[in-house]
Design goal:
This protein is about 15% helix and about 30% strand. The protein is an alpha/beta fold. It comes from Kistimonas scapharcae.
């Protein structure tokens, strides 16, 4: 697991929305930067059409058209998995992605985090866990032993996932959702706030309730 953030290139956070700004705070805590110094090591990036201010929270904002992979290491801080996947696919093929981990996160040495992940404050990852590329683990997420999550996995705050779970790509869990031990979930599933997964999900879609039911 890579728990150290490299300082060889400036950090570039794609997105200035709510989670983008939260990712900046996470970065500041992880590298020990202050509001006065964070602008020296980080920038925000947005699509050219979304550019409307040169600075957010004291950090410069650049347009995607001027982005240079040689200068930056990137995290894509867009909460919606399919939108995040689209942005990742549109960036140059030689883009270097980094991972940001808040210092309060509890992560054992037996956790494998792929590139581009953002792990926020209070997250707990126990052991023998694999998490795919560009995952977002929001505040106070917990994941138990022997879990495997695909690319673009996303949790809102206070999600609790028991051990031996297997999730596909693009799975999203809303605030306070939870998963029983041993549950498998296919690609592109969204679980609403407070949803409880007690059995395998084999069909993509949006699920709500306790136990979960699929919206049709």
């Amino acid at each position: 697991m890579n728990t150290k953030n490299s300082h060889s290139k400036k950090y570039c956070i794609f997105g200035t929305g709510g989670f983008g700004r939260e990712a900046l705070v996470c970065l500041m805590d992880s590298v020990g930067a202050s509001p006065r110094t964070i602008g020296d090591i980080a920038v925000f990036m947005v699509d050219d059409s979304a550019y409307d201010e040169p600075e957010v929270m004291g950090v410069p904002v650049i347009k995607r058209s001027v982005f240079s992979p040689e200068q930056y290491q990137v995290v894509v801080a867009i909460g919606e998995p399919s939108a995040r996947k689209r942005v990742v696919g549109q960036l140059p093929p030689d883009t270097r992605f980094t991972t940001i981990i808040h210092p309060s996160a509890v992560i054992s040495p037996w956790v494998d985090l792929a590139e581009g992940c953002i792990v926020t404050a209070g997250t707990v990852l126990t052991c023998n866990i694999t998490i795919g590329r560009h995952a977002h683990l929001n505040l106070h997420t917990t994941i138990g032993h022997d879990c495997k999550m695909g690319d673009f996995f996303t949790t809102a705050p206070a999600v609790n996932i028991s051990g031996n779970c297997q999730f596909g790509n693009g799975v999203y869990f809303g605030t306070n959702a939870s998963v029983r031990q041993g549950v498998s979930i296919c690609d592109d599933v969204t679980v609403g706030m407070g949803g409880v997964a007690v059995k395998d999900i084999k069909e993509s879609g949006v699920y709500i309730g306790n136990p979960l039911v699929r919206l049709r």
